[in-house]
Design brief:
- Strands 5, 6, 7, 8, 9, 10, 11 and 12 form an eight-stranded mixed sheet that branches. A four-stranded antiparallel sheet has the order 2-3-1-4, covered by helices on one side.
- The protein has about 450 residues and is of the alpha/beta class.
- The protein is globular and about 75 Å long.
- The chain has two domains: about 140 residues, N-utilizing Substance Protein B Homolog, Chain A, CATH 1.10.940.10; about 210 residues, Rossmann fold, CATH 3.40.50.150.
- Helix 3 packs across helix 5 and helix 5 runs parallel beside helix 7.
- The longest helix has 17 residues.
């Protein structure tokens, strides 16, 4: 692993930690402009993900080691120190290489003045293994590698389970596939993977899911570009089942709304599931997103799957700008949220989210729920979903909604409840190999 690769990783981490940029977007940009080999691109990603996964812990140690705060222009040096700490404490990189190559990266960053500083801090970490434990004993949020505000919210919402939620969030989730059962069966595709020396296992709740033993690029998945399979976490795959398309099987046509559809994973699964009961021409599916670029990803995914929907660039809450006046039989609201249930896949959420974001997100979620409820047909189902583990975005949101909408009835979700919620189904990260997720299913009673 070269000093250049470490320097690039530090630049990426610094842009996430101190400028609020998306890790996924930055990695894509660096891969393109740096012309890394596949192996080096994988190493770059592993360094960035690993460093950011534990960044609050590294920041606490850095703050303790420095006599005075660094200049804001030296965020790359702080990120480089964190990178070295990650290699020493959380990776298999030999200590001598972790230290020497990290120090050498200073030259590439054109900050040779920092060589001595970085060398001293990393060697202290190597020489004094008790240092982190002693320091972090008084900072339990940093010990768990979480921002203090998330740590406080989790302990307030889930006092008995908070530690396990944070522990699970610091472990990378598995790569999970969704088999397109319009093209092949789960068992047949599992055999296809086995024939290609790809090990996997079926999921015990998400019936279309296969969990890979080791992640791999989609190019290596048989039939991926022909639409036989998609990459989607098992928790996200539950949305299509919860909307109970089988209960509409006697209908001549159905109308379905995916209100916040990008990048289109759930849209595709809704259509795959519905087509087991209806012909394509009997299904009118509307997929919304207010971001045109993200909606293009929905179009690309549906094209690969040989599925179709009416795609509309619009804010779901601004109904008059896009609705044709005809009610929907099924509505999915995969609401904008804090993303705290998917930190294991997106560790930059720890640094990009702020406590002040939550109130704004709750208001957005509420406005979408309020706006779309009148669009649901009598007897229809609305599934509300988030990838959050905060009660304010989930069960408390549904509690408020039910109090203000007497024609809304919560339907019981019959799966095991790993966390006790007043309303809905709260899934913690890593339970049943799932991401942290929340679902509530509401049925609309006829108004009198």
């Amino acid at each position: 692993m070269s000093a250049k690769l470490r320097a690039n990783a530090a630049q990426i981490v610094a842009q996430v930690a101190y400028k609020g940029h998306s890790l996924t977007q930055l990695l894509d940009e660096y891969r393109q402009k740096s012309q890394y080999s596949a192996a080096d691109a994988s190493l770059l990603q592993a360094l960035c993900f690993g460093t950011l996964r534990f960044y609050p812990k590294w920041q606490a140690l850095i703050n303790d080691a420095l006599k005075k705060p660094m200049k804001s222009s030296d965020g790359d040096i702080q990120a480089l120190i964190a990178l070295g700490m990650f290699q020493l404490l959380e990776s298999r990189v030999p200590a001598h290489a972790a230290i020497s190559e990290t120090v050498s990266a200073c030259k590439i960053l054109k900050k040779t003045w920092a060589k001595g500083l970085i060398n001293a801090i990393l060697r202290r970490l190597q020489r004094e293994p008790e240092w982190p434990a002693q320091l972090l004993a008084s900072q339990p949020w940093a010990e768990h590698a979480f921002p203090k505000w998330i740590w406080k919210r989790l302990n307030n919402d889930w006092p008995e389970e908070a530690d396990e939620i944070m522990r699970a969030s610091n472990i990378q989730g598995p790569m999970t596939l969704r088999v397109n059962t319009l093209q092949t069966s789960v068992s047949d595709y599992q055999q296809t993977l086995k024939d290609n020396d790809i090990n996997c296992q079926a999921h015990n709740l998400a019936t279309d899911a296969l969990i890979l033993q080791q992640p791999l690029s989609v190019e290596k998945l048989p039939g991926f570009f022909e639409g036989k399979v998609s990459v989607q976490d098992a928790a996200a795959q539950m949305a299509a089942r919860l909307l109970q398309f089988d209960q509409l099987a006697q209908r001549s046509e159905i109308r379905v709304l995916d209100a916040c559809s990008a990048p289109g994973g759930k849209t595709g699964h809704l259509l795959e599931t519905a087509q087991h009961y209806f012909k394509p021409e009997q299904i009118h599916c509307v997929a919304l997103d207010k971001d045109a670029d993200r909606l293009q990803k929905v179009a690309d995914n549906l094209k690969r799957l040989n599925l179709s929907a009416q795609l509309i660039v619009a804010d779901a809450a601004e109904v008059t700008s896009w609705w044709d006046g005809k009610p929907f039989d099924r509505i999915l609201i995969d609401a904008p949220c804090s993303g705290t249930g998917v930190i294991r896949r997106h560790p930059d959420i720890k640094l990009l989210r702020r406590n002040t974001d939550i109130a704004e997100l709750v208001n957005t979620q509420r406005s979408i729920l309020q706006a779309l409820w009148p669009l649901l047909a009598d007897g229809g189902l609305l599934a509300y979903a988030t990838c959050s583990v905060f009660k304010e975005e989930n069960e408390q949101q549904i509690d408020w909604f039910l109090q203000h909408h007497p024609n809304a009835v919560e339907l019981e979700i019959s799966y095991e409840k790993p966390l006790s919620a007043k309303y809905g189904w709260q899934i913690p990260p890593a339970w049943n190999d799932m991401d942290g997720f929340y679902y509530a299913v509401l049925q609309k009673n006829a108004t009198t």
